[in-house]
Amino acid sequence: MSETSRSLNFIEHIIEEDLSKGFPENKLRFRFPPEPNGYLHIGHASSICLNFGLGLKYEAPVNLRFDDTNPSKEEQEYVDAIKRDVSWLGFEWDTECYASDYFQQLYDWAIILIKQGKAYVDSQSSEDIALQKGTPTEPGKASPFRNRSVEENLQLFEDMKDGKFKEGEHVLRAKIDMASSNMLMRDPIMYRILHKPHHRTNTDWCIYPMYDWTHGESDYIEQVSHSFCTMEFAMHRELYDWFLDQVVKETKVRPKQREFARRNFSHTVVSKRKLLKLVESGVVTGWNDPRMPTISGLRRRGYTPESIKAFANTIGIAKRDNVVDVSLLEFHVREHLNKIAPRVMAVLNPLKLVITNYPEDQEEWLEAENNPEDEAAGSRKVPFSKELYIEQEDFREEANRKFFRLKLGGEVRLKNGYIIKAESCTKDTNGNIIEVQCTYDPKSKSGSGTEESLRKVKGTLHWVSVKHAIQAEVRLYDRLFTEETPDTHQEKDFMDFINPDSLKVINAFLEPSLASAEVGEKFQFQRMGYFNVDKDSTPEKLVFNRTVGLRDTWAKLQVKN
Ligand code: ATP
Ligand code: MG
């Protein structure tokens, strides 16, 4: 749907309402805040398209903010990958920000809270703190350290910062309300001790701020007007606001947190923790394995930024959790590749075809259109000769009338070439067909304008000339999980549903024009699907990934909202 004809989603309604109440449009500012603890996945694409999409719509800046407060899981490699992926999707951030750049400011604010009696150092174990949390219906119990003096708190907090304690010995907690009906308000932890070097601040800090204390304040520092996060943070909003109350100045923009539903996708998992497990266990070759639902995996698989964005915009933003069928994503990439991918001929499971009445030494270079969807794509020449490969599945000795491919006594057209008739076939000792003999009609050449060239036959087959064919490794992918929702089972782990046949590697025969194909180039192998050149490819050995098959199974499906 075009931007103008589409109705506003609920997030846009929130912004429009704020604007109508006088919020200045030039103060709108958004952010996309990934934690650099893994690669971005297709779920993140929703959040990226939402935030950067709003930026484009309102001509507002969008920051790329790394939420890097947990050095035990975060790495520079992930920062680099995230930047690469957001750029590849075609979005430009205004400022590259890091929560770690605000560690000093956050620390200074924490001191102010301590001085105001709004934060204290708790010296209990995390187990004891958890035990005192109460339940949603029972209030929590106050920590015996809750009423420490300001002086003692200041000293302990400084000692925490100075590395005088071991991990777990103390934490800093906000002093809010142990009886709050919102458990998150029961004196949440603001800081913990972690003796881990940070990928940016190195060993400058050994206390690290918690998500809740960091996120809203980072939004405020950056003057983000609307901070959109996923629904699991809905209960955190009260705390987000409480923390902001402690620092916000009248003259500044007060950020507003609003929530939208996390997207889940069928036949895969989209949690960095689970994706990391797939990588570490060796089920996949890395974060960018073409079977991974990561942006880098999809890129390597042959997806285009346009198709991912079209998909994200089609599913839009929802208020409730749901599972989106991955075939919708496949639909979008197919639709885009149909427009841009040159057509070529490649035989994946070869069966030799000999044209008995075609001269032994003759070869012809036939004119072949590159893309019927795009006239500007032009044409190329493909070699034709006496011996060709066709797909095994395109020939049967006998078949009923619905089989529009080649059968004994039947005719088909060879794409861009001639009409042939199957006369006989040869089998090996196991009864497998190993060769088909046929005759061709020399007057039926495509595009020659003769009456025979215009003759309609039911089937058209792709083929490659045996003596001109180049060989390539082709990687055929299937879904990574056998289950539609692998991570929602009570008794079983998502790893129990790994599809053992998610990758099949074959040796295929290609028309020679593909010899110069470069990494990342995309093609339609006619009748077989869309393929691109994998980064493992070399001039000596081409490697192709199947991005998606040609068949559109989506039409029958709907987004499960
Ligand atoms: P994960 O569990 O995969 O690590 P996360 O939410 O912890 O996800 P972040 O790096 O914190 O990952 O996410 C950055 C932004 O992307 C957040 O605003 C988050 O809400 C959003 N996001 C993450 N996963 C999804 C998803 N599946 N659907 C929509 N938005 C998502
Ligand atoms: Mg996270």
Based on the model shown, name its key terms.
561 residues; alpha/beta; Rossmann fold; Ribosomal Protein L25, Chain P; 7-stranded mixed beta sheet; 12 helices; 24% strand; elongated; binds adenosine-5'-triphosphate; binds magnesium ion
Q: How does this model look, in words?
A:
With 561 residues, this protein is of the alpha/beta class. It has 3 domains: 3-260, 3-Layer(aba) Sandwich (Rossmann fold); 272-342 and 472-560, Ribosomal Protein L25, Chain P (Beta Barrel), CATH 2.40.240.10; 351-462, Ribosomal Protein L25, Chain P, CATH 2.40.240. Helix content is 24%, strand content 24%. The chain contains 12 helices and 29 strands. Bound molecules: adenosine-5'-triphosphate and magnesium ion.
Which strand-content bin applies to the residues? 15-25%
Number of helices: 12
The residue-averaged pLDDT reads 95
Q: Provide the list of bound ligands, each named once.
A: adenosine-5'-triphosphate, magnesium ion
Which structural class do you get from the secondary structure elements? alpha/beta
Which runs of at least 5 residues are low in confidence (pLDDT < 50)?
557-561
Fraction of helical residues: 10-25%
Under CATH, the topology of the largest domain is which? Rossmann fold
End-to-end Cα distance: 18 Å
Tell me the number of structural domains. Answer: 3
- Overall body shape: elongated
- Please identify which CATH superfamily of the largest domain we are dealing with: HUPs
- Strand ordering within the main sheet: 12-27-28-29-25-26-13
Task: Tally the beta strands.
Answer: 29
Q: How can the largest sheet be summarized?
A: 7 strands, mixed
Q: Under the CATH scheme, which architecture of the largest domain would be assigned? A: 3-Layer(aba) Sandwich
